[in-house]
Write a structure and sequence with these properties.
The radius of gyration is 12 Å and the shape is globular. It has one domain: lambda repressor-like DNA-binding domains (434 Repressor (Amino-terminal Domain)), CATH 1.10.260.40. The protein is mostly helical. α2 packs across α3. It is built from four helices and no strands.
Length: 71
């Protein structure tokens, strides 16, 4: 049995906040739209290096792309 899916990133929310399409992010990173979609739905997670590239492109702190583990 697979472990339950955890929401670890906020990529989808930050893309919406920045009014940026996932298609644009995929093109900038040289990734497929389906890869960005999998990140956005937390089905897979980008590497730390890629997360830093995403933060730079969206002009946010990398921490803004992560779900806080503290309340």
């Amino acid at each position: 049995m697979a472990p339950p899916k955890r929401n670890l990133n906020r990529i989808k929310a930050v893309l919406a906040e920045k009014s940026t399409a996932s298609k644009e992010l995929a093109k900038h990173l040289g990734k497929t739209e389906s890869t960005v979609s999998l990140w956005s739905t937390n089905d897979i997670q980008p590497s730390l290096h890629t997360l830093a590239d995403i933060a730079e492109y969206l002009d946010v702190d990398i921490r803004d792309l992560l779900v806080s583990t503290k309340s």
